[in-house]
Amino acid sequence: MKFINIFLFIFIVLISSCSVETENENSNNLDRRPNFLIIVADDLGYTDISPFGGEINTPNLEDLAANSIKLTNFHVAPTCAPTRSMLLSGTDNHIAGVGSMFNSNMYTGIENKIGYENHLHERVLPISKLLLDHGYHTYMSGKWHLGTQNNGSLPSDRGFEKSFVLVSGAGDHHELIAAQYAENGIPLEDDITEGFFSTDYHTNKIIDYIDSNYQDGKPFFAYAAYTAPHWPLQAPNDSIDKYSGRYNEGYDVLRNERMVKAFELGVIPRIVGDDDFYQIGRKWNSLSMEEKNRSARKMEIYAAMVDNLDQNIGRLVDYLDNINELDNTIIIFMSDNGAEGDDVELNPRHRRMRITSNPLNNNSFENYGRKNSFISYGISWAQAASAPFSRAKGHMNEGGTRAPAFILHGSGNTEPSIDNQFLRVMDIAPTILSLADIEVPKGKYNGKNIAQIEGRSFASILNNDFTPIYSDKEAISSELHGHRAVRMGKYKLLYEKQPGNSYWGFPIPESWNKWQLFDLEKDPGETNDISSQYPEIFNSLIDEWDNYASTHAVIRNTTQIDAERLRQPPQ
Question: Which of these, 474, 477, 473, 489, lies nearest to 515 by C-alpha position?
């Protein structure tokens, strides 16, 4: 008996030893680098969500933002696809091949030109590809808008291991039209006409993708590129009436309410002289009662969309928490541009493409937000959502390019703060690579020439190091559809032109079609042109923009440029 007991003891020790070795081996195989969750809202205005001053119920975003570093001077392109190209590539949108929005009617003279290839070009190396090659799972669900199967530029071609995407820029939220979607590079074959809502479905896909691999020890990069609250304004049927009556006082009142709240939260500066605000649309009190009812109802539907988006973000975060991955996940939230001011019911092109061509379309008041409705809320609500900044989507003004954004570590170890330094969307790629301990490649990658990443990592802010990554002496230029801007410290040089939307029936401001100079510290609303006071700065920034245009393949219509340039400051 004693011999048997000794034998059993030795056997148990051996088994335990093997078990410990196996555990140590698994532990050694576990990749401890952080996961990344990038959440992009589509056409969300700066003050739409509660942590940035909005009244819409967004408790999940509020909880995340409360434990984050809010990026209150974060800049994107004026429209969606160029922003998304910069996000994934870390380069300027022209270098990435998205110098325009995929059709020449937005800007002429760009056909077959370098920088205007209309897809995420092979000259850039997307972070999805880099992360995949360096041991990350890479997942995406949502809006792609960076190329098609025809030019070999679906997410599956650009480094995403699993992807479910709306290939184009917009689609019905209540119905999945197979021709518009692709999964893992393969176009879908069957429509989904019942029980579908886009934001819910994209969340399901991201969760499914993460769930398929999360136990294998590899980190993941998940890109939740939501299509809300982009038009058509539609919401789940059970939430349509949630905000009924909330916006009956109109957009003028809402704009002021949001500015007060945003200032109290510290996400906007105090606005002095807001009486100079250039209102594009009509004053609320000039509308008829029917016009007010219809306009307020559209804003109610919009709010319900944002509310639903927040619920889905909460669902995604809860899932990460339940699988014990939230503590090792870095989350970045942002909007892709300013609020959408285009009114698709007035825009002739969209009306023809989206409304009159659809025999099932029902834009009756009773059907607002439901299946087969196709509405947007127009420039006046967009200006309220962009307050206190001027203009909206499609413009190079702050209202079109300054987006709500924040970053945090899901562990809760991020010290909450507000960072007002100038940052731009192309900085996200190098930030992620830095946090993933991946060296930014230079010159070549796998033997192929690649464009150099231009963005700069701001990963240091997670360690409470807020040293500015751009100095006040650096000039940072941008362009889209003839709109141009140069930032240098507090100064901003701006050239505005008609955006091709938003202005149906409204007068064009006299300030357009010439260079202007603003001091954003004193004048964040861009109302006071100071070019005549600072002619040296004015002219030097024009030179900086010319240099940028030459080095970034920016196409300029020479007839326009000769007439527009107006180098000398106003007398």
Answer: 477
pLDDT value at 383 more than 90: yes
Active site residue 43: yes
pLDDT of residue 116: 94
- Both tokens of 86, joined, read 């910069």
Integer Cα distance of 367 and 198 in angstroms: 18
Measured CA to CA, the distance from residue 157 to residue 151 in angstroms comes to: 10
Instruction: Determine whether 230 is an active site residue.
Output: yes
Q: Active-site residue 552, yes or no?
A: no
Catalytic residue, candidates 35, 75, 80, 258: 80
In tens, the pLDDT along 485-531 reads: 999 999 999 999 876 554 556 777 888 889 999 999 999 999 999 99
Task: Supply the pLDDT for residue 551.
Answer: 97
Per-residue pLDDT band at 14 (split at 50, 70, 90): very low
Active site residue 145: yes
Marked catalytic residue, from 70, 94, 145, 350: 145
What is the DSSP code (8-state) at residue 395? S
* Domain extents in the chain: 35-466
CA distances (Å), origin 546, targets 180, 469, 474, 559: 39, 23, 15, 16
d(CA 360, CA 364): 12
198 in Cβ contact with 173 (< 8 Å): yes
Residues 265-275: tens digit of each pLDDT: 999 988 766 77
Any idea which architecture 35-466 has in CATH?
3-Layer(aba) Sandwich (3.40)
Residue 560: left if φ>0, alpha if ψ -120 to 50, beta else—which one? alpha
Nearest to 97 by CA among 527, 539, 555, 517: 555
Question: 519: which residues sit within 8 A by CB, 6+ positions away?
Answer: 490, 491, 528, 530
Catalytic residue selected from 143, 205, 484, 556: 143
Q: What residues contact residue 128 under an 8 Å CB cut-off, 6+ apart?
A: 88, 138, 140, 155, 158, 159, 160, 221, 223
Cα–Cα distance, 462 to 281 (Å, whole number): 41
Write down the pLDDT at residue 557. Answer: 64
Instruction: Name the catalytic one among 337, 347, 397, 501.
Output: 337
- pTM (2 decimals)? 0.92
Token pair listed for 18: 């093997």
Q: How far is CA 398 from CA 83, 106, 245, 389, 402, in A?
A: 15, 21, 30, 5, 5
| Candidates 42, 48, 92, 310; catalytic one | 42
